[in-house]
Give the backbone structure.
Amino acid sequence: MSAKLLGFAAAAEVKDHASFAMAIRAELETVRDLLGSNMIVISGANTKLELILLRTCIELRIPTIVLLPHIDPFLDEETSSLRNTLLSVSLATYPLLASSQSLAILEWADALLCACDDHEDEMLMDALALGIPTRKLHSINLSANWTHTPQPAHSPRHGFPTRRELLEYLDKRFHH
């Protein structure tokens, strides 16, 4: 069975990181039950929320693909150390030289999990326009709802029959 990719975007900041960590764990478990045990999360690793997500993925043994448009040189030492640890155990990490992280995530995601507020973000609008089912996690009350439910029986958007073939393609595409 092919791997399904769950993209993650943080379109709004969350003030209570501990509550967000609990909410994101529940959301990941829910989406994995829906998309299947071969789910892979694709995300960045430059924000606090992305790092919380990646740490939770590691705890839940969900493989991750990390897209990095740039490395933020202004991270404090603790955050930088956490990011390096999380990147070291990710399935793959790819630098993005020319394209934006959100476009790259939307290009591959079968579904999107997005921390957002009441304002519609450009990434959310793009996901809807592309027909990507999006699970909107409200940044204040941490409630979540789907724009439309993913159809697990549909073939993955990436079109590769195995995770290995997907990663081989991504290796060629992102390593210039």
Residues 46 and 72 are 7 Å apart (CA to CA). The longest helix spans residues 17-35. Helices lie at 17-35, 48-60, 77-88, 101-108, 122-129, 163-174.
